């Protein structure tokens, strides 16, 4: 499937969800609204731990014993006053896997901070003038396993910063939000000397002489200015099954305009009780600046290929605590 077809499918899927959310909001009656004064500050904190294990004893079909664990932390604060809304959230996920006869491997590693402030002219409109801050990075080194000698990523290598302003639609921004920013500033940080010298994540690589000596160090920060469109949708599909859908599309004005970076995550939560739930999710990414490394016949040597669609799938059961 061509990448343009993939973008088209993603847009149709998210627009259809947004239309469902908009239609649903129109049929909500004002008579069921709480007559009490709403709280100006609302806090939400979640901590979750997923665990899975596979063990074999005299299993004639064969197999390897393995243990996996995933820690999830989420915190948000919402401020609502008259026509002003300010929503900030922080998310951290870290997962590891241990298989028989293998060292511990990282399966998940992410830190994300989001802060959005919006203002609408009156209480009858669902359109906001908005500004948004978004930051992403990771905690520990990343490797192209089984190679553990050459890091392919580190803390703040990469790190991504988005800052911009535009318009946002949503009657209830916690459930449905469509954000469009025609002017978004994006910075890509590669604060590791070795990775920046090789030009990882789209920064300008180091300049070398004929003997391979560095004449000029590689770029540590890459800046862009472009268009950002995001969509978030959260809803209860049926009893005890919730859906979360987050989509981000970005294209730069100056560098390859029309080449869209995609970050799309879909998660289903299956609630068992107040503390136990199962999770099924997919996470798709495409970034033209992130090139794929292919191993050559020479041990420890890699060649750079073009950007490719990155896909991750998650299935787990665990404990969740709200506080």
Number of domains: 1
Strand percentage? over 45%
The average pLDDT is 86
End-to-end Cα distance: 44 Å
Structural class: mainly beta
Task: Work out the helix count.
Answer: 2
Number of strands: 18
Series of H and E elements:
HEEEEEEEEEHEEEEEEEEE
**CATH C-level class:** Mainly Beta
CATH architectural arrangement:
Beta Barrel
Low-confidence stretches: 20-35
Query: What is the molecular shape?
Result: flat
Rg, nearest Å: 22 Å
Approximately how much helix is present in the residues? Answer: under 10%
CATH topology grouping: Outer membrane phospholipase (ompla), Chain C
In which order are the strands of the major sheet placed?
1-2-3-4-5-8-9-12-13-14-15-18
| Major pleated sheet | 12 strands, antiparallel, barrel
Describe, in plain words, how this protein is organized in 3D.
With 323 residues, the chain is mostly beta strands. It has one domain (3-25, 39-322): Beta Barrel (Outer membrane phospholipase (ompla), Chain C), CATH 2.40.230. The chain has 2 helices and 18 strands. Strands 1-2-3-4-5-8-9-12-13-14-15-18 form a 12-stranded antiparallel barrel. Strand 4 and strand 5 (127-137) form a beta hairpin. The longest helix is centred in the first third of the chain and has 24 residues, at 3-26.
Outline the secondary-structure elements.
Layout: H1 3-26, E1 41-54, E2 66-81, E3 84-99, E4 105-119, E5 127-137, E6 142-143, E7 151-153, E8 159-169, E9 176-189, H2 193-197, E10 207-208, E11 214-216, E12 221-238, E13 241-252, E14 261-271, E15 276-286, E16 293-295, E17 302-304, E18 310-322
């Amino acid at each position: 499937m061509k990448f343009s077809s993939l973008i088209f499918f993603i847009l149709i899927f998210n627009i259809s969800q947004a239309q469902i959310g908009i239609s649903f909001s129109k049929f909500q009656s004002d008579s069921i609204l709480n007559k009490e004064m709403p709280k100006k500050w609302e806090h939400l904190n979640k901590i979750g731990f997923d665990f899975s294990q596979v063990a074999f004893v005299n299993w004639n079909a064969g197999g390897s014993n393995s243990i996996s664990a995933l820690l999830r932390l989420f915190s948000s604060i919402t401020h609502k006053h008259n026509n002003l809304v300010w929503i900030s959230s922080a998310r951290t996920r870290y997962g590891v896997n241990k298989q028989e006869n293998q060292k511990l491997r990282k399966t998940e590693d992410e830190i994300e901070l989001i802060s959005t402030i919006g203002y609408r002219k009156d209480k009858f409109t669902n359109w906001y003038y908005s500004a948004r801050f978004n930051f992403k990075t990771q905690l520990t080194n990343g490797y192209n396993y089984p190679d553990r000698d050459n890091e392919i990523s580190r803390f703040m290598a990469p790190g991504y910063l988005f800052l911009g302003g535009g318009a946002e639609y949503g009657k209830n921004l916690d459930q449905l939000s469509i954000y469009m920013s025609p002017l978004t500033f994006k910075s890509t940080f590669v604060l590791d000397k070795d990775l920046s010298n090789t030009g990882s994540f789209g920064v300008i690589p180091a300049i070398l002489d004929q003997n391979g000596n560095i004449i000029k160090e590689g770029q540590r920060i890459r800046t862009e200015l472009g268009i950002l469109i995001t969509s978030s949708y959260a809803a209860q599909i049926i009893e005890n099954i919730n859906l979360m859908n987050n989509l981000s599309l970005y294209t730069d004005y100056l560098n390859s305009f029309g080449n869209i970076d995609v970050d799309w995550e879909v998660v289903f939560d299956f609630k068992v009780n107040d503390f136990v739930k199962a999770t099924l999710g997919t996470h798709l990414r495409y970034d033209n600046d992130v090139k794929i490394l292919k191993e050559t016949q020479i041990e420890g040597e890699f060649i750079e290929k073009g950007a490719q669609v990155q896909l991750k799938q998650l299935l787990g059961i665990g404990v969740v605590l709200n506080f």
